[in-house]
């Protein structure tokens, strides 16, 4: 796939936009030559789509810890708006072949397909099984998996087609931040759950009565602490730290590898955690439950960046895994040290620090998983660099030779 450079156009009205876009609406194979202005419009469209989906998903978890589930809840509608834009972009890429190579197109199509299949399955699951609040249910995991492949395809398309420069780096980092958000999303159940449980212990209840009673009836228990614990922390305690280290930090390793600059992993993690920090007061001060924030991801990301100062990939993977695992668990331990009944003492939470329960003995499994993932990323990404757009040959003036004198 190559990108042809041309002046960027800025349609000032719908009519001009249509006149600009219609000539591009032609059937083509993936990898066809893509004008620069069209390439940028498509990928900025992806940024808008992912932004809508992230805003909806960020609101969604908090919503489900307060209200009884509703298919047409505002967070679902906001997420659906992003999904509609995703479907439109997939159709454009698939029909025209612009902006993607074959591999990127297949990833985007398969990811979108998995996501769209998971939506009705999730609705059926809720109809059959009731509340199913856990983020770790099979239908929810299908949603994350579909989004995973979708963003992976978009990352590849931008990585392979964008010309070198600051814009390419910044947008690549933004896509990785969306990637990290999707990977870490199921962990928010425990991040909201631990503070909701702390609130219960202090006599503050975030969830409405009908939601608690519905969950209690589903568990066959009265509304007591055992029921609330099952509602807020329904998965084993070791899952949160192991998944955070293996899955979350693997995304940051890939980000540092592909962006290729020191500090890339830290900026990606800081962007995600910063977003969570900014929306925290917007949610809590409008009456929604608070969540613990994964500040340890920034610590882990900084250690990933430092590990890449080692030049030998195999040594970097082994040494980096050891340092990052210890550092991430250390940061988690620090957050746990200030976690307790103080969370939930007042609605709105006065402390930002805290994390779900930490099982330190799981560090070995987390380190082993990260080592395997890190080595796989190093092997896969080795030698894969963005294609340089060849510069046109310099114009030359033909040399006229005078005919020889007979």
Automatic annotation (TrEMBL):
<keyword id="KW-0472">Membrane</keyword>
<feature type="transmembrane region" description="Helical">
    <location>
        <begin position="292"/>
        <end position="310"/>
    </location>
</feature>
<feature type="compositionally biased region" description="Low complexity">
    <location>
        <begin position="397"/>
        <end position="406"/>
    </location>
</feature>
<feature type="transmembrane region" description="Helical">
    <location>
        <begin position="41"/>
        <end position="65"/>
    </location>
</feature>
<feature type="transmembrane region" description="Helical">
    <location>
        <begin position="317"/>
        <end position="338"/>
    </location>
</feature>
<feature type="transmembrane region" description="Helical">
    <location>
        <begin position="77"/>
        <end position="96"/>
    </location>
</feature>
<feature type="transmembrane region" description="Helical">
    <location>
        <begin position="103"/>
        <end position="121"/>
    </location>
</feature>
<feature type="transmembrane region" description="Helical">
    <location>
        <begin position="262"/>
        <end position="280"/>
    </location>
</feature>
<keyword id="KW-0812">Transmembrane</keyword>
<feature type="region of interest" description="Disordered">
    <location>
        <begin position="387"/>
        <end position="406"/>
    </location>
</feature>
<keyword id="KW-1133">Transmembrane helix</keyword>
<feature type="transmembrane region" description="Helical">
    <location>
        <begin position="358"/>
        <end position="377"/>
    </location>
</feature>
<feature type="transmembrane region" description="Helical">
    <location>
        <begin position="141"/>
        <end position="158"/>
    </location>
</feature>
<protein>
    <submittedName>
        <fullName>Uncharacterized protein</fullName>
    </submittedName>
</protein>
